[in-house]
Every structure is written in structure tokens, then in C-alpha cells.
Amino acid sequence: MKISDIFLSQTRINKYINRTPLLESPVLNKKVGGRVLIKPEMLQVTGSFKFRGACNRILQLTEQQRHGGVVAWSSGNHALAISAVCAMLKVPAYIIMPETAPRMKIEGARGYGAKVRLYDRATENREQIGKTIAEEIGGVIVPPYDDWQVMAGQGTVGLEIMEQCRELGIVPDSVLASASGGGLVAGIATAVRTLAPDTDVYCVEPAGFDDLSRSMVEKSRVTNQGNVATLCDSLMVPTPGALTFEVNRRLLKDGLVVDDAEVGYAMARCFEYFKLVAEPGGAAPLAAIMAGRIDVCGKTVVAVLSGGNVDPAVFAQQIVR
Amino acid sequence: MKISDIFLSQTRINKYINRTPLLESPVLNKKVGGRVLIKPEMLQVTGSFKFRGACNRILQLTEQQRHGGVVAWSSGNHALAISAVCAMLKVPAYIIMPETAPRMKIEGARGYGAKVRLYDRATENREQIGKTIAEEIGGVIVPPYDDWQVMAGQGTVGLEIMEQCRELGIVPDSVLASASGGGLVAGIATAVRTLAPDTDVYCVEPAGFDDLSRSMVEKSRVTNQGNVATLCDSLMVPTPGALTFEVNRRLLKDGLVVDDAEVGYAMARCFEYFKLVAEPGGAAPLAAIMAGRIDVCGKTVVAVLSGGNVDPAVFAQQIVR
Q1: Of A21, A104, A268, the CB nearest to B19
Q2: Which of A76, A107, A149, A247 is such that its CA lies 20 to 30 A from the CA of A53?
């Protein structure tokens, strides 16, 4: 992936996406002793950055491919993004979701007109179901991260960050983004490190799902145990993507790990300082900063908040203490 | 107040404020059968639009006036805005707040370094206290709405809306903003109706505090009973401002009134569709749209969401049902 892929992706998707602002809070800055700029992707269409990659990928399908439709599997943000892009472009969408997925996400995908096929996590394989459907209908599978055009779409977050920093007349010391499959941080790192080679990019992962951080140390892809609980439902992929890891192993400075208490605290501060709803995975980079996983004293740091699709009860529990 | 006052205000405050985005939700649009664009001023510094007017006014003080300091009374958003602007410009701030003001707002003002003088609502007069302090210290009183420069600062919300609509290639059919003293909607109406004379501007008020709506009907300023309860703590001014009413009586199309249940419902939808924290008064324009107070079918409507400074427990109560 090159900066040109991201630049052309931006040109392609610009009129469909929200250009999310870069925000800061004088109270937070004072508290951490540095300058923290947040990139609130919960304000993106469908409530997460996933809309960018889905948009970039689906806009490039041929007329015939669009006619067949798009097939995807996801329990959350990727499902909503694919459904919304397909609704917008009048392309049929088939989403494979676990029976146990949050009601609001299943209903959300259906609300956009997607056909949702529920499956049993214990007895069925979602990729197999997806491939079968794709063959039957002549549809195209759009994977959640391990795809160059999806990654280039997510990279527009990084390109916007650098453009917005330029408008402010600053070069950030570092940029933090959460990692599940690693597509978001791979796209961001490509944009940021091409345009500002001295800026460090970090991935942030929840405890027990630090596969990318450990893979960077091991210099090869390792897998999580998987039977650990985490608040960060959107960051539970067991292994880094093959393509994303090729990018991330070269470009990332390091991996940072946060626990549930730190994530909950960051969700509450996001409410207090920014009036934003962050889902647990979306608050992880802010959690890493506030927990002191990285030294921000006197530095300028950008934290990408990836999404805000969280159940009201879960959110309420984190902000009321 | 003329468009030039607002334009020059924008030039003055631009580097200090957040240019809040104009956002929309395909799900909300589908639900109401029209296009609803929101202007989320909870993302403004200090969590409300008040920062704009405070900034514009205080930046124009002379060196000598800045030395003396700024005096203001408020139980909420104006207090936070004045305190933050003064901290930024190193001007002493004296805020008179009721003993019963929300703890987070008192602590918020103090956190910015303001001197907070608490008073007893039953036995003391805040304006008298303010005037006495201002005389003692040689300070300047910055009123919350009945001031041309404060109004011009709030008007930058309207100017940004029109610029952002132009970028989208649209002219909105109407713009809705909440009214307490009426400074926000007066500034917005001046900008919007000067640049797009066919666009209607409406004020939105909570039931029991519809003084501006009734004053427009009566063609003179009327007062609320005042002993009514409302969720909208930020919209409880008893009478329209003298200066703001001169503007609003000429420029507003009409007044819309919403009740607590409609406001709570809009806060929950704001969480769901936009991942934004709206305080009750901040959600009032969205409440008016969703309650059908105005026909948006096939129309393009802008709703200004004025702020997001709400107690976590109050917010949680509205989103979890």
C-alpha cells in the first residue's frame, strides 16, 4: 500500500464520508501535561471508521459485481458499514452475523436493508457460509481488514489527520490507533509515516487480545488464547491479518496494552471532556494515554477514537460511578 | 447587528474555536422523511456555543480592561466559557454562581482558575453582587446574551452553517436553535437570513419557558411564571433579552415548544444516531423535529445542538429505558 492508494481513496470517498474534526480539551491537556488531539470516528457515518474502507472497496466494484451483491461477515461495525454503503449505492448486501450479536447491530444492518443470516458460533463456520452465499448469488466478499482497498480507505483517517495538523501548523510526535485485525492502524501508519517520517505510530490493544503487539516482538503472527473476557468487543480478532501485518511490522513503533478498568475510565472522560460516546474499543487509545502507557509530557499526540456503537446500558455503567 | 459584525467576529475567534462539523444520519433522515443536518456545538470548547460569544467579547477588551478582569454570573455554560477564555488570555475571571449549581460546573469554572463567588438565590441578588465586584476590581461585566458582541460571536454558528451548506451545494429550508435569553438564535438568524433570505429560522423552547415564542405573538416581551419544572436547565431565563428580542421579533419565523418527554427522547436518539452527548436544552431542536412540531417531510432542516454539559446520572437516565 502506498500513499497514492490512500490519496485516490480519499478522492473517491470524500463526498460520502464525514470529515471528522480534530478536537482537543484544555482540561485534558492540563491533566496529562501534553497536547492531546482526538480524531472522533464515532462521528463517521454508521458510527465508526469502517464506513471509509467499505465505501472505498464497494465504489470500485464493476456494474456486474454490484448487481450480484456484497457478502460480509461481522458482529458489529463492519456489518453496519457494509449495509449502509450498499443501501446508498443500491447494491444487495448479505451479512453473516452470530446469533449472539447485539440486537441493535442486527437490527441496524436490517434497517439499512441488508439480508442478515444468523449463525451458531459453536457449530457453524461463518467464512464457509459466506463463501457459499457468494457463489450462489455471484456476489463479492468484502473482508473486514485483510484487503488493500479496505486498508486504503481506513488510511484516509491518517491523511485527514496530517492535513488537519498542517492547518494547525504542527507535526504530531505520535499517533495512536486501536488494532483488531490491524487495517485501521496499517492505513494510518502508511499515511502518517510517509508524510511525517519522524512521527511514531502505535497500536493499542486490550489485555488478552494483544496479538499484534506480541507478533511485532516475535516478528511473526501469533494467536491469542481467546477465552479471555474484555470490554472491547470490537477488538477481539485472534490473529493479525496477513496483509495488515506486513505493513504494521514495518511501520509501527510499538504496541500498547490497556485493561478494562482503564478503558472504562477513558469512556467516562470522553463523555466529560468531549461530549462524545466512545465504545470500549474506541476509547482504548485515550485509555493508553491516561494510564501513562506512553509519555505525553510536553508532546503532541493524536488519539484516533475508532467508534461509538455501544449499548446504552454498557455506556451508562461506565459514566455513572 | 449586521452580517459584518458576525464576519469580523469569525475572523477574530477562528483560531480559538472548533469549527464544528455538519453531520447527518441516514437512519434519522429515513425516519423523519427529510434531510436533517445537525450542528453539534457540544463539540465546541467547554462543551457549548457560549465559548464563541465569550471569546469575541473578551478579545476586544483593552489592555487595561483585561488587567482588571471579567465579571459574569451564570449557573452553567456561560460560566465555563468565560472561565476558559479568561484562562486562555490570562485575564482574571470572577464568576457569581448559585450555591445550588451543579458541582461539576462550579468545579469546572474553578478548574480554569476562575474565582467563584457562591450566592444564596433566596436572599441575594447576583447582578448586584456582580456590579459591586466589578467596581471594586475595575473589572468588566460580560453578560450572557444581551450584548451585541456576545450575540455576534454566537452568530458565527449561523455563518458556519451557511458556509458548510454551500460546500454541500444546498440551501436549507429552515434552521432551528434553542432560546434561553435568545442570543444564539438572534445571531444565527442574522447570519442565515442575510445570506439566504428564503430560509426560515425557528426558536425552540421548553414548555413553561416559552417566553420568546409568546413574546413574538404578543409583539412585546412577556415573562414566564417561573415555578414550573423543566429538564432543560440551560433554557430557564424568565424573559427575552431587550436587545435579542429586537432582532428575533424581526427575523424569526415562529417559536416551537417541546416537553420533557420529547427532550429525553431526543437525547437518546442523539446518542443512538450521532454518538453525541446532548444536554437537555441542547437536544430541544431535535426534539421539535422528532415530535413533529415542524413539517420536515421532503425538506432540508438544520438543527443546532447547543451544548452537552449534562450530569452523567441525568444522561444515563435518558438513554437507558
Answers
A1: A21
A2: A107
Chain B interface disruption, residue of A103, A275, A321, most B CBs within 10 A:
A275
User: Which pLDDT belongs to residue A9?
Assistant: 98
Are A43 and B27 a contacting pair at CB < 8 A? no
Tell me, what DSSP letter sits at residue B17? S
How far is B213 from A74, CA to CA, in rounded Å? 49
The CATH class given to the B3-48+147-319 domain equals alpha beta
Percent of chain B at pLDDT exceeding 90 = 90
Q: What is the ipTM of this complex?
A: 0.95
Q: SS3 letters for A18-51? A: CCCCCECCHHHHHHHCCEEEEEEHHHCHHHECHH
Res B98: pLDDT: 87
Q: Are residues A23 and B42, on separate chains, in Cβ contact within 8 Å?
A: no
Q: What is A3-49+147-319's CATH topology? A: Rossmann fold (3.40.50)
Give CA–CA dist B107/B90, Å, rounded.
19
pLDDT tens string A92-120: 999 999 888 878 788 899 999 999 999 99
| CATH code, residues A51-141 | 3.40.50.1100
Q: CB of A89 within 8 Å of any CB in chain B?
A: no
Distance CA A87, CA A56 (A): 15
- Mean per-residue pLDDT for A152-157? 98
Q: Are strands B140-141 and B115-119 parallel, antiparallel or unpaired?
A: unpaired
Query: In the structure, how many helices (H) and strands (E) does chain B have?
Result: 14, 9
CA distance B275 to B319: 11
Nearest-neighbour CA in chain B from A281: distance (Å): 14
Residues whose CB is less than 8 angstroms from the CB of residue B249 and which lie 6 or more positions away in sequence, other chains included: B215, B216, B219
Q: Is the pLDDT of residue B102 over 80?
A: no
- B225 band by pLDDT with thresholds 50, 70 and 90: confident
Pinpoint the residues of chain B covered by CATH 3.40.50.1100: 3-48+147-319, 51-141
Model confidence at B236, in pLDDT bands (50, 70, 90)?
confident
Statement: residue A226 has pLDDT above 80: no
